[in-house]
């Protein structure tokens, strides 16, 4: 307790100096209001005066000794002992603070420390019911995040400064120093519409099962990792890409990546009959991907809190260029599913949380999602044969929170119906990659070839000359 009192005594004169400065210099009011709240002041008198300053500022009125005094006089609930004398004394003992921003930070830091002490006491005194442990943990995590993120940066800027920064970014693009501003997907036609996966964006990749969502996501992951490696060779950095996989194990994902990179089919039936050339190609691919900054978490019981916490932890030591979550339908929430379980509300919470994580950490997050069965029930001859935003499973919040929504669907040649096309079992199928929503750019479709046996996508058609394990040339 003595330590707390000492800290309060240390911060009290700083709070008084700050209020004195505000009463005499209205030019600093906006900066103080942007970063502080009345509750941040340990001195209740200073908190009341600052509350009056905030209200006057909201009403676009002048901040001065007289206006603050009049405001408190007219609001009896704000009265405190000798308030008139306190305000006049602060105004008359004005000493200009040269390190004004440092004073604001000290007050904010002291406030956060008090909140953390109170929060620690709350945790100690909470009955940890093990049947509701995940729910309590989620609440604690959110509260901790709220406290530690309470420091505000100056986000308010004039259009002149914004335009100046925009001009610099435009000059980089025009000079080709930075042709793609985001993380490249590795597909030029996709990047032409999105300019890469942009930091802070939530991107949805949705399709029915069996279309190749995970395969395309892995192609994106590897391509982004190669870009990280190339950038690191020019300027050393800690850039990485990260994947959370709840459906497939890390070894299964590695098998797909090696197959795609070597262009050798590595299905269980093929592994034991590899030629020497194929085996060499596989070993070369393993060496290549081993040098890539790819990290995979294959915990099948991942919760939204786990993903949130792990991204925050990794972001402390690495710059994350891309996060992939495979997939939304397998994510678990903090609550135990009972009679009042609401899947739509849970998925809405997932999408909001992922969007917040993307923005707070300034990273693109690509989330795989399923489509409703309604799409399959529509006539193939209908103009609605393509997936629609309304086809997203479980919640409309996904569409609302996402910056980009993309769909994958199989292109069925006109001369074949889908059943005949499936029976044909071609190693390569055509996929339409449709950008249905793009908050920052154009929408539209791109045709890709999916070589199913090696989990690889291409913008130009792949034609094997002698077999899938030979003739590894893209035309």
Features:
alpha/beta; 13% strand; disordered C terminus; single chain; 475 residues; nine-stranded mixed sheet
Describe it for me?
A 9-stranded mixed β-sheet has the order 3-2-4-5-1-6-7-8-9, with helices on both faces. A hairpin with a 5-residue loop joins strand 7 and strand 8. The protein is of the alpha/beta class. It is built from 18 helices and 9 strands. The C terminus is likely disordered. Helix 1 packs across helix 5.
Q: Topology of this structure?
A:
Elements: H1 2-24, H2 29-35, H3 44-58, H4 65-73, H5 83-92, H6 100-124, H7 133-148, H8 159-174, H9 188-194, E1 202-207, H10 213-234, E2 239-245, H11 250-262, H12 268-271, H13 276-290, E3 294-297, H14 304-315, E4 319-326, H15 343-361, E5 365-370, H16 374-377, H17 397-401, E6 404-410, H18 418-424, E7 428-438, E8 444-451, E9 456-458
